[in-house]
């Protein structure tokens, strides 16, 4: 089989893959903004703070669900475009994707652990999700809360790099990589 007879890659990722990608992106951005405003920029006594906390925890549960679906979709092959890893750029792209998955998974776990370490359930749209673990030591809250905070910033910067790489492909390389992920 010659190079010219090889099938060309599809023009787009599957609609499921694109939907999961953009839903994850929107939820991560929302979670970051609401988390920063609700915990770091707004006074603890501000009237909107309870709403922001409820929004953050509820949509955090939605994000966790989307993340689990996305991981399952990826592990079962989904309908992704599979490319051989040839160049250093391919290696970096694959590594960044893996790092994003690890950071997002960690962020979700740290968020649950930070909440459960206070002895309170994670509330999702008014429904409590109790800890499946025995009572965590009260001294672990600042540890998990700190991990959740700093991992959020790391996730933010890596996701921003990922987004800039997409725009680099769109405007500089003009290789249609960005268009494959458009809805």
UniProtKB/TrEMBL annotation:
Q: How does it sit in the membrane?
A: Multi-pass membrane protein
Q: Does the keyword Cytoplasm apply?
A: no
| Keyword terms of this UniProt record | Cell membrane, Electron transport, Heme, Iron, Membrane, Metal-binding, Transmembrane, Transmembrane helix, Transport
Q: Which domain of life is it from?
A: Bacteria
Family membership noted in the UniProt record: Belongs to the cytochrome b561 family.
Q: What is the lineage of its organism?
A: Bacteria, Pseudomonadati, Pseudomonadota, Alphaproteobacteria, Acetobacterales
What is this protein identified as? Answer: Cytochrome B
GO cellular component, as recorded: plasma membrane
Q: Molecular function (GO) terms listed?
A: electron transfer activity; heme binding; metal ion binding
What this protein needs as a cofactor is: heme b
One GO BP annotation is:
respiratory electron transport chain
Location(s) in or outside the cell: Cell membrane
By its UniProt entry, which SUPFAM superfamilies does this protein fall under?
Answer: Transmembrane di-heme cytochromes
């Amino acid at each position: 089989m010659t190079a010219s007879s090889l099938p060309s890659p599809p023009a787009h990722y599957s609609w499921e893959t694109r939907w999961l990608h953009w839903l994850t992106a929107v939820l991560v951005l929302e979670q970051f903004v609401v988390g920063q405003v609700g915990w770091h920029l707004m006074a603890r006594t501000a009237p909107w703070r309870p709403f922001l906390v409820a929004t953050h925890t509820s949509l955090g549960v939605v994000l966790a669900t989307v993340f689990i679906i996305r991981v399952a979709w990826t592990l079962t092959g989904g309908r992704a475009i599979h490319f051989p890893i040839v160049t250093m750029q391919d290696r970096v792209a694959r590594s960044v994707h893996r790092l994003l998955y690890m950071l997002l998974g960690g962020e979700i776990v740290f968020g649950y652990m930070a909440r459960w370490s206070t002895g309170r359930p994670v509330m999702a749209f008014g429904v409590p999700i109790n800890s499946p673990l025995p009572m965590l030591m009260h001294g672990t809250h600042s540890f998990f809360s700190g991990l959740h905070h700093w991992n959020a910033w790391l996730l933010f910067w890596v996701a921003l790099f990922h987004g800039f790489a997409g725009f680099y492909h769109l405007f500089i390389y003009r290789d249609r990589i960005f268009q494959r992920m458009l809805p």
